[in-house]
Design a protein that fits this description.
Order of helices and strands: EEEHEEHEHHHHEHEHEEH
Largest sheet: 6 strands, mixed
Radius of gyration: 17 Å
Strand order of the largest sheet: 6-7-8-3-9-10
CATH superfamily: P-loop containing nucleotide triphosphate hydrolases
Structural class: alpha/beta
Bound molecules: adenosine-5'-triphosphate, magnesium ion
Shape: globular
Number of domains: 1
Number of strands: 10
Helix content: 25-40%
Length: 262
């Protein structure tokens, strides 16, 4: 069953001198329940731009994006926000946890925007999720007292706490050492699989890409399915810092929780 479908999607922006820049060209992609997809591409190939489209944070310049067979580009921004909040979980390279709030409060945040049972039982649900990532004993800790791997596990718990059907991860292991990254990614893969969610990981890390069942390569805005995880890629960390990053906060709630951490 298809959750997300992209048909001939493009994204073009206008540069300051008024020339157009085609970032994504003719993207076709179908994401099904339980899929695990990796997308590998060089810095500047359009990965984060694509992730913002997949997560309904941006609209394509042309083409169509269907979520549950609903043409999302035609939806009001309020309806797109609601779909995103309920059905999409985001995980970023820099964790993006809210400082000054405990691990448990961070995981609870998306549930503040839920309704009914999920809202009223938010503390218990968040605690169960923290337990699933092995951090129940650190529930009262502030993010800056946790290691990088622990922070990413809290971020995973937060991304999954509302039971999203689509999980989008942008360089989820980019700030972790190889071993920690691999542990965190295996955990993410396990919880995603247990919940039946589809997982799309954008990555330079071949260990992350290899965990996926379907592999794509993004090359200058063109997305191609490949048989095995592509072994790119050396990207200068400095170059990444310039072109990468969390979605533009002006788009609203990146975690579907109505709140942006900075
Ligand atoms: N709003 C914008 N205006 C102008 N150029 C943009 C805009 N958004 C993205 N770009 C450009 O589009 C290209 C793709 O950007 P994107 O952030 O999607 O790359 P990326 O593959 O995620 O790179 P990285 O691996 O470094 O994170 C880059 O050259 C970037 O400078
Ligand atoms: Mg990027």
């Amino acid at each position: 069953m298809s959750i997300l479908r992209l048909e001939s999607v493009t994204r073009t922006v206008e540069l300051p001198d008024a020339t157009p820049l085609d970032i994504l060209r003719g993207i076709d992609l179908e994401v099904n329940v339980g899929d695990h997809i990796s997308i590998v591409g060089r810095s500047g190939s359009g990965k984060s731009t694509l992730l913002n489209l997949l997560g309904l944070l941006d609209k394509p310049t042309s083409g169509a994006i269907y979520f549950d067979d609903v043409h999302t580009t035609a939806l009001s921004s309020r309806k797109r926000d609601r779909t995103r909040g309920r059905d999409v979980g985001f995980i970023f390279q820099q964790f993006n946890l809210l400082g000054g709030r405990t691990a448990l409060e961070n995981v609870m945040t998306p549930l503040l925007y839920a309704s009914g049972r999920q809202f009223w039982r938010r503390e218990r649900i968040a605690m169960e999720m923290l337990d699933r990532v092995g951090l129940a004993h650190r529930a009262a800790s502030m993010p800056d007292k946790l290691s990088g791997g622990e922070q990413q596990r809290v971020a995973i718990a937060r991304a999954l706490v509302r039971g999203p059907r689509l999980i989008l991860a942008d360089e989820p292991t980019g700030a972790l050492d190889v071993e920690t990254g691999s542990t965190v990614m295996t955990l993410l893969d396990d919880v995603a699989e247990a919940s039946g969610a589809a997982l799309i990981a954008i990555t330079h890390d071949v260990n992350v890409a290899e965990l996926a069942r379907r592999h794509y390569r993004l090359d200058r805005g063109v997305l191609t399915e490949v048989d095995t995880a592509p072994t790119l890629i050396v990207t200068a960390p400095d170059a990444r810092a310039i072109t990468s990053g969390a979605p533009d906060p002006s788009h609203g709630a990146p975690y579907g929780n109505g709140e942006v951490s900075k």
